[in-house]
Design goal:
single chain; 248 residues; alpha+beta; SH3 type barrels; 3 domains; two-stranded antiparallel ribbon; 8 helices; elongated
Amino acid sequence: MIRRWAVLLLLGVLATNGRAELQLFIVDSAKPDGTPELVAVESEQNEGSKVVLQQINGMKREVSKGNILARLPASPGPGDVLTREAAAKAISDLLEAKSKAPALEKVLQEEVEKWKACLDKLPSAEDPGALAKAEAAFAEAFARAMPKAHDPKNDYSMEEIRQQINTLEVLKKEFPNREPEIDRGIEPWRMEENERLAGKKKFEGRWLTPEEWEKEKGAREKAAREGFLKKIQLPEVSPVLIGQGVLL
């Protein structure tokens, strides 16, 4: 049970800090029961018949080369750009490792499922069905992230702008291969943010300095007043009619 919790803790660290360059090493343990261990490694250094492993916890570990049963890619981290080939190879390597280390079967299968989820999001030109599925998944996720398209005439608050930017940034981590498309969706929101940070205000879709905004506002208010006065102004009447008491 203690070993199980140790493995779960390791995978939790990978989920938080994991990057594609990390590797999972299956090391043949020197413990009496001979149960292999799963070790997260940032780098390795050969020293004759030994290998020095730099672990993600900052510790170094020296093991015999013959005790390394497998070198596996860590599950992808947010923003990692993947290919179908890399994901397929990772799944294959993990499945092979399961046969070498039955004691780690459950946690290795969890890693397999993570890679499968990544693979489902990567379109394949050779598989129209997979391509359509990937496109549909992206379209659905994008629609959730941005339910309404950016309207240049709408006067968004800074909170609304930043919330939309943050939501789309999260989407980029979920679909790193679609980053250019997502960036195009973020672009008008970035512009909104930059203009507001520059102290400008929006007037009917145009960004104006505070001085320009006040001037435009004053001109519109003046035009509105003049229009109102024209509507209530009495029509010109002949003096003869006035003398005859027509308006009385």
